[in-house]
Design goal:
The chain is of the alpha/beta class and 605 residues long. It has three domains: 233 residues, 3-Layer(aba) Sandwich (Aspartate Aminotransferase, domain 2), CATH 3.40.640; 94 residues, Aspartate Aminotransferase, domain 1 (Alpha-Beta Complex); 215 residues, 3-Layer(aba) Sandwich (Rossmann fold). 42% of the residues lie in helices and 18% in strands. A seven-stranded mixed β-sheet has the order 2-8-7-6-5-3-4, with helices on both faces. Helix 22 links the parallel strand 21 and strand 22. It is globular and about 80 Å long. The N and C termini lie far apart (60 Å). About 1% of the residues have low confidence.
Amino acid sequence: MTDPRLDHELERALEERARRGLKRETKLDGVVPGVDFGSNDYLGLSRDDAIASALTAAAAYGVGGRSARLLAGGSVLHEESERALARWLGAEAALLFPSGYQANIGLVGALVGRGDAILSDRDNHASLIDGARLSRARVIVHDHCDLGDLERALKSAAGARRRLVLTEGVFSMRGDRAPLAEIDQLCRRYDAWLVVDEAHAAGLLGPCGAGAWAEAGVEGEHRLCARLVTCGKSLGVAGAFVAGSEVLRRHLIHAARSFLFTTAPPPPIAGALLAAIERCQNADDLRAKALGNARSLASSLGLPAPAAAIVPFPVGDSGEAVKLASTLRAAGFYAPAVRPPTVPVEAAGLRLVCRADQTPTQVEQLVSLLREVRVSAASASSRAPTRAKVTCVAGTDTGVGKTVVSALLMRAAQRSGHARYWKPLQTGDDDDTATVRALSGAPADSMLPNHAWFPLPASPHEAAAAAGQRVDVSALEGDYQRHRAAAADRLLVEFAGGLHVPIDLDPAVLQIDWLARMDADVVLVARAGLGTLNHTLLSVESLRSRGLGVRALFLVGPPHASNFRTLAELSGASRCYEVPTFDDLAPAALDAWIDRYDLAELLHV
């Protein structure tokens, strides 16, 4: 009999997902339970008779791709569809991949590698994120559609061999549009190249539905090197094209691993795409209906005007979003909840997708249902506690100066707002809470009690074991949620030791694992001197691997100009600060430092 331990571990992981409101629907038969406001068939072409009839190509070419394209897979229909796509978008050439995910991974990995830099919007699709990670290039995540932050990131990547900016034309969750013309200007200024994922724009925006880049109307020299068009949305079929130069196409054939080492899409799919591209170019009537439904829905709900056909309906709590989706389903409408990791924690809601085949009456009925829910939610939220913004002060190691940095942040917060400080796990004889209070001058009610304090100066799991105890991670999480709800403006959380310090071992939970669930801004504290480059960059890499960025990096100790410059360039941190060893560690010394640096933006005050 198979050893059941792995299944037991996986079952516990599923139970944890359910506890956090993240359990997904596992009915995968594709049957839409009601009026469809959830799938991406924007123009309704997935059931178009002319496109469906193109599947008769199976009679001539068979139903299978047989092998990779370079091993005689595919058919002449693949190249015909690629030429048709290129003509539609006004590109030199295109290459067909089996899926959008494979196309993004193959494209990014073929364009950049070690020594290069990727500038990625924080809200990019998972396929772009994973393509960036797998490429082994340095990845710098910038704030969503923030041109100033993108420019800062481009400046920090000045030493890279090649710089690649990744963005969606229309973002898949927010439904907003990237400022492509302005991004292209920055790419020209800083010698970078631009990739635009047109998944949710092609077929809807631009002349003949040619996408967000076509609508942006950039003329003359530009830095666009590739566009991606997925085929399962407006085109109603499957697969994805990468469009660009003829040289890019030939390069991808040789260098995109997700093209080289996978079976070609079946010939009937390529044949259907030929018909779909022709139909989509001439579908101004369907575009007008889908976009009109989206504008009507958003306007009636008092939401921002959509860039295309996606209308986000914010809820906040994952559990409440799931309940709302269930309520709509019972009323005959399919609008699934979107939750982490698809969206950030506390950004759960509904992703309402408008289509050409929805009637005005159906849109009005959905509006009425959501208005009723919104009134009920507003009444409930007026009685519910607010949730503070959270800043987590984490370190590359123990003794690097996290407590001094926490005191600086608390003292700065006192100037124009209110914050509470919490050291969840304290070990040894130190009392960091008392130190922060003394240095920051914060009132007593701003200092929250430790969740646990163990005498042994060691990692939390070891210190707890020495005291005959263990850290109950569920109870720790419960304390965190209560403190966050009670904090007025900001909750400042100081970790114990480094990011990979264990909290508990059964199951293994590291501090960074908890941090990934906290929805917190990360402030990373490191030593300024010898040895900091390796420790700091490894910590940054660990944070990135869990989808976390560094909002600010503090280097504590005697200033080291070379280390500061190197980490400012390589860490991807939005802000970098040097904190010297204070001759007299007292509130006046902290004030003198704060007067030199503006921490207001960092603290959102």
